[in-house]
């Protein structure tokens, strides 16, 4: 099975979805039921319904499902209640609301800057593909055919020929690469698209993680030499890792896919793999492929080298999608809702003045002015600040409201604080509070945001590391999976063994485990170490796990 950034090739069922017709990979089966948010119980209707001034009675803001005991419900509630996602009429398609789109734009800005510096240019190719074009490289499309969506009509008349909607753009772009590359002087050709692709998934649609249309970037490069191409593969992989670690505070493991898990059209596939402790599953975070000369052969992308010889180009393709956002939510969220890493939070600080009924009009006024002053000061530093001075909600309700949305810092300003010229900073990640003098707010808040960003990463890293076990026997392998862990185990690269492990490790409740990657950073492998499953001489440590 080929791999791709969204892990579309992984037909895994979630523990809540039933296998279809007894098979988890039956692509023509009905879609697994989408986990839509349940109708809320009374007293918990969408706050929007009741957020009117005349209705004084407040609704509870917050989640009813717990992350530890009902993860799938928890996830659905978080993404909807925190207003990241709205469910849509077409199953498997979701609306990305501003809170989610902001995160994507943050990733986009950062990654786009990095690839431009490196010499990549953005372009846009059409979303429609003719059948011949799509099938030009049969091998790579074959395994995916069931996921391709087709346009067959315009109005009420049938099209002469159905037209596919791009599931990825290799076959869209490469015929033009063949035209545009003539000489070594035309190389490297490095283009990127920020677009959406459509893959008609049948297994367990999940917002951000697996949807039928998703946003991503797809980069496609052509080089004169293998060395240059390989250099880019790892350069991009590093950038993908940094999107996770530096922006989302999510640790990832860089590695190579096994032969069975790589993109079928590639020479080799590299990946960044994350871990979701709550479910014990690994998740592919992005992939960077070295395509070798597979596609240049098929599409005739050749050039005249300096010595006048005709040569095929060396190609790569690489993709990172909005799945990033889902991973971030799953890793950091808690029972109060989202926990946003400061670097990608649309609101980094919320200021909440806390007047009480006893306060004089003047004192209230002074408090409002001070709150405003903080907002101005912090915005002037470039921070993203909300001031919640709505007077129809209690402070407690507002706390829950902003906690649900994961805002990293809440600045509380109460009557006592006004007397002491101080305020309270409450951290979303630890829920701890500390007093800060007014004069220190402008210096402390940016520092605290930085502290939170790093603390979130360290916490996730510790949890991730505690969730990986190094084993050498089958018994320990199974025990580790049962404990919802990923497993680092010695492997001889035997494909049949990988398939066999997947079968043998599947249980009534849980899917089988497969290799997530062969980590680039390898622990020492003493010579003579045997594969945990076949008993034959191991080649490397592989990272195994149940996965999305
Ligand atoms: C679904 C239908 C048709 C994944 C598909 O990973 C074709 C495909 O080629 C398909 N799902 N893939 C693999 C995508 C490979 C590659 N493309 C560019 C990437 C990164 C971005």
From TrEMBL:
<feature type="compositionally biased region" description="Polar residues">
    <location>
        <begin position="11"/>
        <end position="20"/>
    </location>
</feature>
<dbReference type="InterPro" id="IPR006195">
    <property type="entry name" value="aa-tRNA-synth_II"/>
</dbReference>
<dbReference type="InterPro" id="IPR004499">
    <property type="entry name" value="Pro-tRNA-ligase_IIa_arc-type"/>
</dbReference>
<dbReference type="GO" id="GO:0006433">
    <property type="term" value="P:prolyl-tRNA aminoacylation"/>
</dbReference>
<dbReference type="Pfam" id="PF03129">
    <property type="entry name" value="HGTP_anticodon"/>
</dbReference>
<dbReference type="InterPro" id="IPR004154">
    <property type="entry name" value="Anticodon-bd"/>
</dbReference>
<feature type="domain" description="Aminoacyl-transfer RNA synthetases class-II family profile">
    <location>
        <begin position="92"/>
        <end position="341"/>
    </location>
</feature>
<keyword id="KW-0067">ATP-binding</keyword>
<dbReference type="Pfam" id="PF09180">
    <property type="entry name" value="ProRS-C_1"/>
</dbReference>
<feature type="compositionally biased region" description="Basic and acidic residues">
    <location>
        <begin position="49"/>
        <end position="61"/>
    </location>
</feature>
<keyword id="KW-0648">Protein biosynthesis</keyword>
<dbReference type="InterPro" id="IPR016061">
    <property type="entry name" value="Pro-tRNA_ligase_II_C"/>
</dbReference>
<dbReference type="InterPro" id="IPR036621">
    <property type="entry name" value="Anticodon-bd_dom_sf"/>
</dbReference>
<dbReference type="Pfam" id="PF00587">
    <property type="entry name" value="tRNA-synt_2b"/>
</dbReference>
<dbReference type="GO" id="GO:0004827">
    <property type="term" value="F:proline-tRNA ligase activity"/>
</dbReference>
<dbReference type="InterPro" id="IPR002316">
    <property type="entry name" value="Pro-tRNA-ligase_IIa"/>
</dbReference>
<protein>
    <recommendedName>
        <fullName>proline--tRNA ligase</fullName>
        <ecNumber>6.1.1.15</ecNumber>
    </recommendedName>
</protein>
<dbReference type="GO" id="GO:0005737">
    <property type="term" value="C:cytoplasm"/>
</dbReference>
<feature type="region of interest" description="Disordered">
    <location>
        <begin position="1"/>
        <end position="62"/>
    </location>
</feature>
<dbReference type="InterPro" id="IPR017449">
    <property type="entry name" value="Pro-tRNA_synth_II"/>
</dbReference>
<dbReference type="InterPro" id="IPR033721">
    <property type="entry name" value="ProRS_core_arch_euk"/>
</dbReference>
<dbReference type="GO" id="GO:0005524">
    <property type="term" value="F:ATP binding"/>
</dbReference>
<dbReference type="InterPro" id="IPR045864">
    <property type="entry name" value="aa-tRNA-synth_II/BPL/LPL"/>
</dbReference>
<keyword id="KW-0030">Aminoacyl-tRNA synthetase</keyword>
<dbReference type="GO" id="GO:0017101">
    <property type="term" value="C:aminoacyl-tRNA synthetase multienzyme complex"/>
</dbReference>
<keyword id="KW-0547">Nucleotide-binding</keyword>
<keyword id="KW-0436">Ligase</keyword>
<dbReference type="InterPro" id="IPR002314">
    <property type="entry name" value="aa-tRNA-synt_IIb"/>
</dbReference>
């Amino acid at each position: 099975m080929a791999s791709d950034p969204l892990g579309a090739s992984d037909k895994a069922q979630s523990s809540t979805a039933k296998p279809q017709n007894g098979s988890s990979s039956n692509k023509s089966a009905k879609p697994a039921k989408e986990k839509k948010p349940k109708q809320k119980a009374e007293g918990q209707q969408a706050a929007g319904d009741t957020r009117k001034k005349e209705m004084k009675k407040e609704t509870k803001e917050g989640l009813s499902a717990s992350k530890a005991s009902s993860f799938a419900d928890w996830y659905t509630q978080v993404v909807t209640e925190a207003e990241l996602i709205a469910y849509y009429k077409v199953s498997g398609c979701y609306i990305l609301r501003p809170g989610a789109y902001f995160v994507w734009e943050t990733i986009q800005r950062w990654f786009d800057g990095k690839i431009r510096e490196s010499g990549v240019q953005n372009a846009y190719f059409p979303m429609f593909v003719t059948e011949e074009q799509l099938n030009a490289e049969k091998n790579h499309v074959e395994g995916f055919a069931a996921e391709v969506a087709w346009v067959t009509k315009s109005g009420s008349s049938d099209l002469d020929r159905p037209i596919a909607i791009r599931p990825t753009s290799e076959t869209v772009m490469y015929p033009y690469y063949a035209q545009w590359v003539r000489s070594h002087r035309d190389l490297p050709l490095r283009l990127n698209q920020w677009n959406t692709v459509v893959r008609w998934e049948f297994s367990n649609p999940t917002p951000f993680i697996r949807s039928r249309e998703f946003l991503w970037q797809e980069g496609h490069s052509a080089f004169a030499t293998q060395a240059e191409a390989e250099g880019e593969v790892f350069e991009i992989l590093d950038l993908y890792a940094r999107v996770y670690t530096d922006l989302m505070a999510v640790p990832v493991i860089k590695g190579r896919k096994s032969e069975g898990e790589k993109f079928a059209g590639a020479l080799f596939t590299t990946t960044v793999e994350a871990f979701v402790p709550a479910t014990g599953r690994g998740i592919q975070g992005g992939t960077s492929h070295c395509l070798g000369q597979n596609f240049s052969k098929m599409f005739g992308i050749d050039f005249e080298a300096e010595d006048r010889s005709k040569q095929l180009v060396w190609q790569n393709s690489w993709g990172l999608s909005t799945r990033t956002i889902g991973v971030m939510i799953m890793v950091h969220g808690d029972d109060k809702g989202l926990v946003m890493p400061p670097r990608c939070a649309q609101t980094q600080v919320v200021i909440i003045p806390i007047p009480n009924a006893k306060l004089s009009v003047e004192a209230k006024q002074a408090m409002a002015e001070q709150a405003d002053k903080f907002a101005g000061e912090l915005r002037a530093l470039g921070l993203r600040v909300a001031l919640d001075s709505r007077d129809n909600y209690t402070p407690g309700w507002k706390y829950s409201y902003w906690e649900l949305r994961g805002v990293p810092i809440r600045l509380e300003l109460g009557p006592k604080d006004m007397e002491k010229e101080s305020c309270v900073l409450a951290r979303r990640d630890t829920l701890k509070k500390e007093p800060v003098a007014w004069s220190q707010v402008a210096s402390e808040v940016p520092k605290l945001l930085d502290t939170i960003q790093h603390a979130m990463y360290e916490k996730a890293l510790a949890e991730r590391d505690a969730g990986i076990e190094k084993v050498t026997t089958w018994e320990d392998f199974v025990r580790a999976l049962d404990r919802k862990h990923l497993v680092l185990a010695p492997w001889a690269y035997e494909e049949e063994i990988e398939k066999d492990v997947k079968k043998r490790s599947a249980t009534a409740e849980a899917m089988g485990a497969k290799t997530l990657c062969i980590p680039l950073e390898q622990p020492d492998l003493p010579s003579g170490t045997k594969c945990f499953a076949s008993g034959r001489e191991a080649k490397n440590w592989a990272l195994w796990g149940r996965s999305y």
